[in-house]
Amino acid sequence: MDHIKEITDHNFEAEVINSEMPVMVDFWAPWCGPCRMVGPIVEELARDYPGKLKVAKMNIDDSPNTAAGLGISAIPTIMLFKGGEIAERFVGVQPKNRLQRAVDQALD
């Protein structure tokens, strides 16, 4: 997980909203089975786009304010931010190729 940034309510704006590059954020919780299924896919994507995509994880139990502010009602939720705005939102386990397409579009 050395390619993945852990973010919280306190550093979300600095790490995601103000990021120069697109950011993929995995909103998750340790007790969530589907979150554990999507975790390795998120880690692969972090390794696949070094220096082009920032990949972050936010534990919604530890940082509930950001998740609530973004209207996250189910996890895992993966959001792709570009220029501080939400470019894509995925709820539930997603295949890697679907997430890759969204990342590729955000990088164009």
The best one-word shape is globular
Number of E-state strands: 5
Q: Give the termini separation.
A: 26 Å
Strand content: 25-35%
By CATH, the topology is Glutaredoxin
**Name given to the CATH architecture:** 3-Layer(aba) Sandwich
Helix count, per DSSP? 4
Write the CATH homologous superfamily: Glutaredoxin
Count of domain modules = 1
Q: What is the CA-atom radius of gyration, in angstroms?
A: 12 Å
CATH classification, class level: Alpha Beta
Q: What structural category characterises the helix and strand content? A: alpha/beta
Strand arrangement, major sheet: 1-3-2-4-5
Low-confidence stretches: none
Order of helices and strands: EHEHEHEEH
The chain-level mean pLDDT equals 94
| Portion in helices | 25-40%
